[in-house]
Design goal:
5-stranded parallel β-sheet, two-stranded antiparallel sheet, Rossmann fold
Length: 210
């Protein structure tokens, strides 16, 4: 039995979101084929994603100086504890499904907050004399990224979405990364339904191999 972590970052309801509806199609097919797998869902707009703020930085600095967690103040304990829970949830998963929209050539800020919360030294990677090393290597973990964009940007130099998420996954040691991108739904609205249909077919096929 595998653990699948499903991470979304979209304000729209599913029926009005191209990316979320494709993600739902993938998830339905995946769970049909893998009924024993364990599913965990995170909505980065709905759930409590702790950002790195001054309390977090102060708490980490105290622990680097030798303090134990219990000696941190209440705000530091609460916020760092939340980050650790998110990081542990991520590390314990076997498979990852991210469903995101493009905002201004990148992601919504909530996704960056989440990445900062899970990419924790000692959990996702380690500092070594030769540079950082991903701690999630050689564990058979895999990631599928379903990404939607109103324009056509994927593969261009201005695209800071899919390449960024791929690099973060690789940094932590997750090298089995696949992107399923649906583009142009706003640029060519008369073809939006066709673009969505083709992407949904790809998602259903991806579910058979994930």
């Amino acid at each position: 039995m595998a653990k699948l972590l499903y991470v979304t970052c979209n304000l729209k309801p599913v029926e009005h979101s191209c990316g979320l509806s494709i993600g739902r199609a993938f998830l339905g097919e995946y769970l049909r084929l893998n009924p024993g797998d364990e599913l965990h869902c995170l909505d980065l707009y709905r759930d409590n994603i702790q950002r790195i703020d001054i309390d977090v930085l102060n708490g980490w600095e105290k622990m680097r100086a030798g303090a134990v967690f219990e000696f941190l103040n209440e705000d530091e304990q609460r916020k760092i504890g939340r980050i650790w829970r998110l990081a542990d949830q991520f590390v314990e998963a076997d498979k990852y499904l991210f469903v995101t929209p493009m905002f201004n050539l990148g992601f919504p800020a909530e996704l960056k907050m989440y990445i900062d919360a899970i990419c924790v030294a000692g959990k996702a990677f380690a500092h070594t004399p030769n540079g950082p090393v991903g701690l999630l290597r050689n564990q058979g973990k895999k990631c599928l990224h379903i990404h939607s964009s109103g324009g056509f940007h994927y593969g261009g130099g201005e695209d800071h979405s899919v390449p960024y998420l791929r690099s973060i996954m690789n940094f932590m040691g997750i090298e089995d990364f696949e992107a399923l991108v649906v583009e142009g739904v706003d640029t060519i609205p008369e073809l939006a339904r066709q673009f969505k249909r083709l992407a949904t077919e790809k998602a259903l096929y991806a579910a058979t191999r994930f």
